[in-house]
């Protein structure tokens, strides 16, 4: 591991993420899919696949499922763009993933 320093606050670990996107896990579970080519995938997985992202911290973008964000929209998934955290998105099933990637400032179809 690439950690340095003795004190806890000085420890660092590198990641290749240049964006972090938070996707509500509970919204995703409630929709039971709704995204991807057949509409059977959860949003986080469908978006990762759509953008051909690697896994974990080696990915160019971190798309992370998180606990309920307290919005709990009906028929949509709450999504937070870490770089624009004042403006959350409510993403409906079947949403165009290129459009979503654009709204999140993620280049569509990027590798990594
Ligand atoms: S269930 Fe997703 S924001 Fe609460």
Automatic annotation (TrEMBL):
It comes from the Bacteria. InterPro entries: Thioredoxin-like_sf (IPR036249). CDD domains: TRX_Fd_family (cd02980). This is (2Fe-2S) ferredoxin domain-containing protein. It comes from Sphingobium indicum (strain DSM 16413 / CCM 7287 / MTCC 6362 / UT26 / NBRC 101211 / UT26S) (Sphingobium japonicum).
């Amino acid at each position: 591991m690439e950690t340095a320093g003795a004190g806890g606050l000085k420890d660092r670990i590198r990641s290749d993420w240049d964006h972090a996107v938070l996707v509500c896990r509970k919204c995703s579970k409630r929709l039971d899919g709704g995204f991807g080519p057949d509409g059977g995938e959860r949003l986080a997985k469908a978006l990762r696949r759509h953008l051909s992202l690697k896994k974990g911290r080696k990915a160019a973008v971190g798309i992370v499922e998180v606990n309920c964000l307290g919005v709990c929209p009906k028929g949509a998934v709450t999504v937070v763009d870490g770089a624009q955290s004042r403006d959350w998105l409510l993403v409906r099933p079947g949403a165009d993933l290129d459009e979503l990637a654009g709204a999140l400032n993620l280049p569509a179809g990027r590798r990594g």
